[in-house]
TrEMBL record:
<protein>
    <recommendedName>
        <fullName>YggT family protein</fullName>
    </recommendedName>
</protein>
<feature type="transmembrane region" description="Helical">
    <location>
        <begin position="12"/>
        <end position="35"/>
    </location>
</feature>
<keyword id="KW-1133">Transmembrane helix</keyword>
<keyword id="KW-0812">Transmembrane</keyword>
<feature type="transmembrane region" description="Helical">
    <location>
        <begin position="76"/>
        <end position="96"/>
    </location>
</feature>
<keyword id="KW-0472">Membrane</keyword>
């Protein structure tokens, strides 16, 4: 097998792994928004895990917008973080594929 083929295959695998990780991060942020909008029990274990993960991946944007309505604040702040993660993931995956 040629070296170029191996590099392309490795870059393809790396790009796929990065896309998966980015998609999972976006999913966590969106699930947190949905759970908040649906008034999920904040004491529930699943809700706490999702909230903790969303807080970890929110890029420090949990107080970017400060509307009076808390649900709107979560939607705007975590939604913005989700969009940014989606853009970052797309750009990084394209760069990895191009380099490979």
């Amino acid at each position: 097998m040629a070296v170029g083929t191996t590099v392309r295959r490795g870059a393809g695998l790396l790009a796929t792994a990065l896309r998966l990780v980015g998609t999972l991060i976006v999913a966590v942020l969106v699930i947190h928004i949905v759970l908040t909008l649906l008034d999920a029990n904040p004491g529930n274990g699943l809700t706490q895990v999702v909230r903790d993960l969303a807080d970890y991946f929110n890029l420090g944007l949990n107080n970017l917008f400060l509307p009076a309505e808390p649900k709107l604040a979560v939607t705007l702040n975590y939604g913005t973080a989700a969009i940014i993660w989606l853009v970052i993931t797309t750009v990084v995956v394209k760069l990895v594929r191009r380099v490979g």
